[in-house]
Amino acid sequence: MSMTGMALDRGSRIFVSISKLFLLVLWLSVSSVAQTPTARISGLVMDQAGAAVAGVKITTTNVGTNREWSVTTDESGRFLIPELPVGEYEVQAEQTGFNKEIRRGIVLTVGRAAVVNFSL
Predict the structure, then answer these.
(1) Do 53 and 77 form a contact (C-beta atoms < 8 A)?
(2) 38-48 pLDDT, tens per residue?
């Protein structure tokens, strides 16, 4: 084999090695993004007769950071608060004409989907 052929072969191996390393780093970075430490809270709000209550304000508070997220129940009385950081939460449901309800001590871990239902 000539010197030019050996240099080309060596250059090809280096290129392939660098390409593999680049792909590995790319794959690891995508994997870490896909595993962000979040959870979600969902639930249903009903009245004392068992009928769904639409338009209820649901406020979720992270006890450690005091950060709040708010949503409103849909026409079926359902709500969903996705992508919450892990931690301890309290969830409050309030609607004009009903008593306010609070649930405390809801601990979210990575990937957990907590269900918090209310009866107003």
Answers:
(1) yes
(2) 899 999 999 99
